[in-house]
Fold this protein.
Amino acid sequence: DIQMTQSPSSLSASLGDRVTITCQASQHISKYLNWYQQKPGKAPKLLIYDASNLETGVPSRFSGSGSGTSFTFTISSLQPEDIAIYYCQQYDNLLGLTFGGGTKVAIK
Amino acid sequence: HVQLQESGPGLVRPSETLSLTCAVSAYSFSSDYYWGWIRQSPGKGLEWIGTYFHSGSTYSNPSLNSRVTISVDTSKNLFSLKLKSVTAADTAVYYCARLPYRSGGGIFDNWGQGTLVTVSS
């Protein structure tokens, strides 16, 4: 299996702050990396696919970058509605899709 | 707007088979999408269970492979999950999801709301 390691596991930031989450793959996965947002009691929602493509309807304050083994997810200006857990997910190996452990984002 | 809705028993006894269905509304099954299942144990992260591809082929998580069956009923616009020989470790919220063909089967772009299944005697 390809292991996905997210960091930090949790963070606290002020409204308007820039928030960055990283995701490291245990092997090269090219651009095959997605980011999801999960709010309490809700299903995950796709935000970013193929490392840097914004899903339709997702606010432009969300962005992603990276390729190979190292990826970054950024919220340019944290909003109250961004409080959630964020997960990365690789699909380089379709026989073994895997998610990162998640990053919980809270307001300071 | 396509909606996915899981349904099935909320309680399953150990060693029995967990059976869930996912109804897909406002959409007719075609070759544009694949269909998958993901689960989330209480307070834990996300675990891919399996994906149903065209022509009946299915990929399943190697850790679950021999216990998982995923099928599609196009006449009823739904797809199903069966997980055999369950234990308490299979207690989780189960999500069904859609995967666009363009992604090759790797992007979950639309999810059901999830259903909690508890394994207990």
Observations:
- Chain A has a mean pLDDT of 97.
- The two ends of chain A are 36 Å apart (CA to CA).
- The interface with chain B takes residues 1, 32, 34, 36, 42-46, 49-50, 55, 87, 89, 91, 94-102 of chain A (CB under 8 Å).
- The CA atoms of residues 74 and 108 of chain A lie 17 Å apart.
